[in-house]
Design a protein that fits this description.
By secondary structure, this protein is α/β, with parallel strands linked by helices. The chain has 4 domains: 4-86, no CATH class; 141-207 and 248-287 and 454-502 and 590-637, 3-Layer(bba) Sandwich (FAD/NAD(P)-binding domain), CATH 3.50.50; 299-451 and 641-704, 3-Layer(bba) Sandwich (FAD/NAD(P)-binding domain); 503-586, Recoverin, domain 1 (Orthogonal Bundle). 41% of the residues lie in helices and 17% in strands. A 5-stranded parallel beta sheet has the order 10-7-6-14-25. A hairpin with a 5-residue loop joins strand 12 (259-265) and strand 13 (271-277). Helix 15 packs antiparallel against helix 18 (571-584). The radius of gyration is 37 Å and the shape is globular. The relative contact order is 0.09. Mean pLDDT is 81; it is low at 1-75, 77-85 and 705-739. The structure holds flavin-adenine dinucleotide. Flavin-adenine dinucleotide binds next to helix 6, strand 7, helix 7, strand 11 and helix 11. GO terms for molecular function: calcium ion binding; NADH dehydrogenase activity. InterPro entries: EF-hand-dom_pair (IPR011992), EF_Hand_1_Ca_BS (IPR018247), EF_hand_dom (IPR002048), FAD/NAD-bd_sf (IPR036188), FAD/NAD-binding_dom (IPR023753), NDH-2 (IPR045024), NDH2-like_C (IPR054585). Its main location: mitochondrion. This is Mitochondrial nadh dehydrogenase protein.
């Protein structure tokens, strides 16, 4: 221990664990240890008892001055000198004592800080309660309370909303263009978060009054995360732009009179309908699970909403508890514990992984061991690999991981029917001569997760817009995200419900036709030089940013498609070239990432349009392609795909760049979603849930009675069991039988 440092000229004491300027011992301290003790003895009686602190003090305390009447060393100094000069054991004791003192000080200050924190929290909490009700006269427009009727169906029109006069700012906002957003999901929330305050009169219409953080939904099905940690009230998000919320469902849109028909079940259970007018409409209603025309989906669970997660959690727990009953036969137990996931995409894979975690980490601790041995998890996938939209390396990693965890992956398999207690499917043997085998699996639980399709509302709109909408899966928009077939700049569609049309060939060919006619030429006889081809390519890049990657080597493309080697591209050659590029473009993925980017894009664009509108009005510019004049087309940037595969995670950045790994990748995966979470509140709750899982495990309880069909299953289970028992007795010939 460096308790003392003694030099020939000055002796200085180094106090343990302090590193400030050291007080100097007067000449009394001698260079060699053996001389120290006698000196101490001599000076002992004349020294002051305590050594004042050498550190500067604040407040009323006085700084330390060495008392002039005691020029020699202080008692404390000398005690240290003595301690340092005695045996090593004494030094160690001193070290231990110092350590204990510091621990006690640390503990004391921690308790103090904690105490202050708790007291502060209670003070804050107490301040959030209100004793007195805030009652005051409120201005509400008569039109809001008694809307006028009109529109094609003569329904009430919600021109003024009941909170439009809640404060001065909201009153002012009534003058702004009415922006109505259908849906409160990824696309809508991204748009709301990027919209400037006060530029629009914003209204969100959605049957759900919360935003759901879907990427973490599989974690909520098994209790890794709580459901409330994944949802954010939409009114909270709207507060930033002083927006309005209507909890209802959009049924139809009358594009000519700019009215949205909305429905809601009223307090008496009746269907009530009304119109909401708009100046700008954004359709972001998402999608529904694709049933693929399979029979018996009423016996399946889906995973789209928070209610689905709740039902799944209840069902899993219910099956586990049923399996523990003494009256459950072995066969029945195996069936109840056979969990089937139909669909090997990210949602199905993540659910299977979460389920495995629950069974592996929590079940073994709290449920009878027999259950662990009898549980089986199966994934039925129609393609050759699970996660087939990811790089093959990633898919193989996930498959290997599942094989290790004994999750049964059935590839090249298609479900043909779901029955209450089994799932029927066909499996194709790989290879050119591969046959198709019909198979079935007894199951107590089936999750249907096989891609997405259009909502009824979108199908109605597509039908209404006729020829402009040719895609069966989603509403088509142009690259400015404007819904095809609607008046330009009025209606936009984003997220899962929409797809950006990639008809480069048609677009450019009609553009060239117009150009040719304008110059009095026959388009069919058009000959493009290399320079002209470069100009066309630059226009294609601007209008269709997704085609950028296919228009890199213009010279190569030119020479490749100049079939007659004339040094020019004729109309036919150009059409062939552009059609080839068209065929290489794939639709944008139906992901939160895309919906978010599109919402963000619209937010920025609407802000810019709002800024430009006074100038446009002043110049009386109302017609024309304002979006194109003011903002670039939408360009999707793929940031990569992530998936959780059971205590490990995979990341596919695209272009062959990917990685996968164990727990460190899981933490990276969590960090990404933690950062993307919608608010501080949800981040905080997610963090607490992860900590809670580590400390106490997942919540292993059901929260609501089973859904009616599960009860039917249960009745059926019990009935079939009674049937078996009766038959067994009949076989034994004890007089009882069955008819
Ligand atoms: C379990 C699960 C996990 C997922 N994981 C990922 C992931 O890890 N990464 C990723 O990028 N994507 C993921 N996705 C996909 C992602 O959730 C969707 O692509 C995204 O939600 C699409 O956003 P959206 O705004 O188009 O629609 P949604 O977010 O689905 O929102 C649609 C909104 O419209 C409302 N609505 C529906 N019908 C109407 C109507 N008629 N009128 C008014 N409102 C209506 C709904 O209530 C909802 O509020 C996952 C999806 C699921 C289900």
């Amino acid at each position: 221990m460096p308790g003392i440092v003694v030099t020939a000229r000055t002796a200085s004491v180094r106090y343990p664990l302090r590193s400030t300027a050291l007080p100097k011992l007067p000449a009394i301290a001698i260079a060699s240890r053996k001389h120290v003790l006698p000196v101490q003895r001599r000076q002992f009686a004349t020294l002051p008892a305590r050594r004042p602190s050498p550190y500067p003090v604040s407040g009323n305390a006085r700084p330390f001055h060495r008392p002039p009447e005691s020029p020699g060393p202080f008692l404390h100094d000398l005690i240290l000198v003595r301690i340092a000069s005695t045996s090593a054991q004494a030094g160690r004791k001193n070290k231990v004592f110092g350590f204990l003192t510091r621990c006690a000080a640390f503990l004391g200050s921690s308790v103090l800080v904690l105490g202050i924190g708790v007291a502060g929290f209670f003070l804050y909490d107490a301040s959030t309660y209100k004793e007195e009700a805030e009652l005051a006269d409120i201005n509400v427009s008569d039109l809001a309370l008694d809307p006028r009727r009109g529109g094609p169906k003569n329904l009430p029109i919600a021109e003024v909303l009941i909170d439009d006069n809640d404060n001065e700012e909201m009153e002012k906002q009534q003058e702004k263009p009415k922006l109505v957003i259908l849906g409160g999901g990824w696309g809508s929330v991204a748009l709301l978060k990027h919209l400037n305050l006060g530029e629009y009169h914003v209204t969100v219409i959605s049957p759900h009054n919360y935003f759901l953080f879907t990427p973490m939904l599989p974690s909520a099905t098994v209790g890794t995360l709580e459901m409330r940690s994944l949802v954010e009230p939409i009114r909270r998000v709207l507060a930033r732009v002083r927006g309005h919320f209507i909890r209802a469902q959009a049924e139809d849109v009358d594009f000519s009179s700019k009215l949205i028909e909305v429905s809601q079940t009223d307090a008496h259970g009746n269907d009530s309908r009304f119109y909401v007018p708009y100046d700008k409409l954004v359709i972001a209603v998402g999608s529904v699970t694709n049933p693929h025309g399979v029979k018996g989906l009423e016996y399946c669970h889906f995973l789209k909403d928070i209610d689905d997660a709740r039902k799944i959690r209840n069902s899993v727990m219910h099956n586990l508890e049923l399996s523990c009953l003494p009256t459950t036969s072995d066969e029945e137990r195996r069936r109840l514990l056979s969990f089937v996931v139909s669909g090997g995409g990210p949602t199905g894979v993540e659910f299977a992984a979460e389920l495995f975690d629950l069974l592996n980490e929590d079940l073994t601790r709290r449920f009878p061991k027999l259950l662990r041995n009898e549980i089986s998890v199966h994934i039925i996938q129609s393609r050759g690999h699970i996660l087939n939209t990811y790089d093959e390396q990633v898919s193989k990693y996930a498959e290997a991981r599942f094989a290790r965890d004994q999750i049964n992956v059935l590839t090249n398999s298609r479900v043909s029917e779901v029955q209450p207690d089994r799932i029927v499917f066909t499996q194709k043997t790989p290879g050119p001569d591969g046959g198709i085998t019909a198979k079935e699996l007894p199951t107590g639980f089936c999750l249907w997760s096989t891609g997405v399709s259009q909502t009824d509302f979108c199908q109605r709109l597509a039908a209404q817009l006729g020829q402009s909408q040719t895609n069966k899966r989603a509403l088509e928009t142009d690259t400015h995200l404007r819904l095809n077939g609607t008046p330009m700049g009025d209606v936009y569609a984003i997220g899962d419900c929409a797809t950006v049309q990639n008809n480069i060939a048609n677009h450019i060919v009609s553009f060239l036709r117009k150009l040719a006619w304008k110059h009095g030429k026959d388009p069919e006889k058009l000959q493009l030089s290399f320079q002209e081809w470069r100009a066309v390519a630059s226009d294609v890049r601007k209008r269709f940013p997704q085609a950028m990657g296919h228009l890199r080597r213009l010279d190569k493309l030119f020479s490749e498609y100049d079939k007659d080697k004339s040094g020019t591209l004729d109309f036919g050659e150009l059409r062939e070239l552009l059609t080839e590029i068209d065929s290489k473009l794939t639709s944008l993925p139906a992901t939160a990432q895309r919906a978010h980017q599109q919402g963000q894009y619209l937010g920025h664009k609407f802000n810019k349009l709002a800024h430009a509108s006074p100038g446009l009005k002043a110049n009386d510019i109302r017609e024309g392609d304002l979006d194109d004049a003011i903002f670039n087309t939408f360009e999707y940037r793929h940031l990569g795909s992530l998936a959780y595969v059971g205590n490990s995670a995979v990341f596919d950045r695209g272009g062959g760049w990917n990685f996968s790994g164990g727990l460190w990748a899981v933490y990276a995966w969590r960090s990404v979603y933690f950062a993307q979470s919608v608010s501080f509140r949800t981040r905080f709750l997610m963090m607490m849930d992860w900590a809670k899982r580590g400390l106490f495990g997942r919540g292993k309880y059901s929260m609501r009675p089973q859904s009616p069909w599960s009860c039917q299953c249960l009745t059926r289970v019990v009935t079939s069991r009674s049937y078996e028992l009766l038959r067994a007795k009949a076989k034994q010939g004890n007089g009882e039988g069955i008819s």
